[in-house]
Design brief:
Blueprint (H helix, E strand, L loop, with lengths): L2 H26 L11 E2 L2 E5 L9 E7 L2 E9 L5 E5 L12 E4 L2 E4 L5 E3 L14 E3 L2 E3 L2 E5 H5 L7
Antiparallel strand pairs: 1-2, 2-11, 3-4, 4-5, 5-9, 6-7, 7-8, 10-11
């Protein structure tokens, strides 16, 4: 083969390699789930309790400056409503969060399970959901945006 033929073949192989890298990055990158937007008013996330008092985990996304923070709200067997970041200190770097299957909340990275109706979740190797400070005001769950933004480091 002549030198120009090798150059063309090398250039073509380089192009194919770079194309594969781009496809891999776009298709297999660490993308977080996108949930319904958290309802924000006056620097507070306000969620009506009647929307989340059904024994299921309800996932939301709060977006600030183009960065998203995922969280969920659940009601335990005693009727207590609480909120958590969709992350844990062990698996958060994978940006996979949790999912609900039946009565369990399951880590999408390591498979650790937590029963949604349990009053408290015992620490299980660092994979337990991280509590997100919230309050009940009348018939609404309220989360200050300053509080949820402190969890941004979990979603970078």
């Amino acid at each position: 083969m002549n030198p120009s033929g090798r150059f063309t073949a090398s250039r073509d192989l380089l192009f194919i390699f770079l194309l594969c890298v781009v496809v891999f990055q776009l298709g297999c990158g660490k993308k977080m789930a996108q949930y319904p937007d958290a309802p924000v008013r006056d620097n507070k996330i306000i969620i009506p309790l009647h929307d989340v008092r059904d024994g299921r985990a309800h996932f939301f996304t709060y977006t600030r400056g183009g960065r998203q923070i995922n969280f969920f709200v659940r009601t335990d067997a005693k009727g207590t409503v609480s909120s958590y970041f969709d992350a844990c200190y062990t698996c958060y770097k994978q940006k996979k969060g949790y999912r609900q299957e039946g009565a369990d909340l399951i880590c999408n990275e390591c498979g650790m399970k937590f029963n949604i109706s349990d009053e408290t979740w015992q620490a299980q190797g660092g994979c337990d959901p991280i509590l997100l400070k919230s309050s009940i005001e009348g018939e609404q769950l309220v989360i200050d945006t300053d509080v949820i933004e402190k969890g941004l480091k979990l979603f970078k």
